[in-house]
From TrEMBL:
Molecular function (Gene Ontology), one example: ATP binding
Domain of life of the native organism: Bacteria
Localization of this protein: Cell inner membrane
InterPro entries: AAA+_ATPase (IPR003593), ABC_Ni/Peptide_Import (IPR050388), ABC_transporter-like_ATP-bd (IPR003439), ABC_transporter-like_CS (IPR017871), Oligopep_ABC_C (IPR013563), P-loop_NTPase (IPR027417)
Pfam family, one: ABC_tran
Source taxonomy: Bacteria, Pseudomonadati, Pseudomonadota, Gammaproteobacteria, Oceanospirillales
Protein name in UniProt: ABC-type dipeptide transporter
Protein family: Belongs to the ABC transporter superfamily.
Listed EC numbers: 7.4.2.9
Catalytic activity: a dipeptide(out) + ATP + H2O = a dipeptide(in) + ADP + phosphate + H(+)
Alphabetic keyword roster: ATP-binding, Cell membrane, Membrane, Nucleotide-binding, Transport
Amino acid sequence: MALLEVNHLDVRFALRLGEVHALRDVNFTLERGERLGIVGESGAGKSVAAFSLLNLIAKPGFIAGGEVRFDGQQLNSMSERALRKVRGNRISMIFQDPMMTLNPVLSIGEQMLECLKAHRRISSKEARAIALDKLYQVQIPSPETRLDQYPHELSGGMRQRIIIAIALLLDPDIIIADEPTTALDVTIQAEIMALLLELCEKHNVGLILITHDLGVVSQVTQRMLVMYAGRVIEQGPTREIINDPQHPYTQGLINALPQMATPGEKLNQIRGSMPSLSNLPSGCAFHPRCDFINRADGQPRPACTQQVPGFVESGNCQVACHMVAELIDKEATDEARLKETNP
């Protein structure tokens, strides 16, 4: 049994004009110590998926169906009191903006001690010793001094290290990192991600990394999910997806990386933009932007515009794409014919 199992997760927002599907039939697992990346454009549903795991969806959002199971327990059916024992204790979260996460009127030490005392019965002296140890682990210079400082006295990189230290305070089984390096420059980004990777490997902590940066995902994660318009459209081993992407959307994301463009030429881009979740296209949500919607005869593939694609197995990956399904069927047919002619 996996440490974390997400089965057929369905999240909706009840708006005045009707319900909006933010997540549809999302499925994935996370093993103990495994590193999973979730990628996609803004609006794909990455952060909603992360917040759903701990039932942190704010109203008018709600989990309409499916289940989230952690270590055999179903989180989305737990009481708020029972969930508080899991949040921050066994599953920690690193949010996008450290200045929004840290309380500006409390010192770093006060915030760390408050977190520890909320989950453990320990003295202030013991809590301070644990907090100091975690600051050493995230390589904060002069940690004794930092404990008595306030968030505004620290740089962006230091604040993010503080957030990681707080996430590690209670030795969690899983850390969910939602765009943890968004507000940082490139050099600091690399340092933070290397630190996070080192700490997860050292403590055997599972990591769910939510980002739009495929470069970071390729360096840090072992498996990845690609999301589009609230659905998972491709998932499998990170290295396999990066080296041989199957879904046209995944191919577009990788081709849009700066290093994939010819020097002096325009960067590659996926035409169009993410559709509104309140007005999704019929069939495959990506088909209005897809360069492979036409069949070999030049005519649009009817299934793409009429049917939501199911998953097909391609190597060690799962892909939700009608074109990929056709290619797999064609390969199987050609192979069967070859065996018939050459028994």
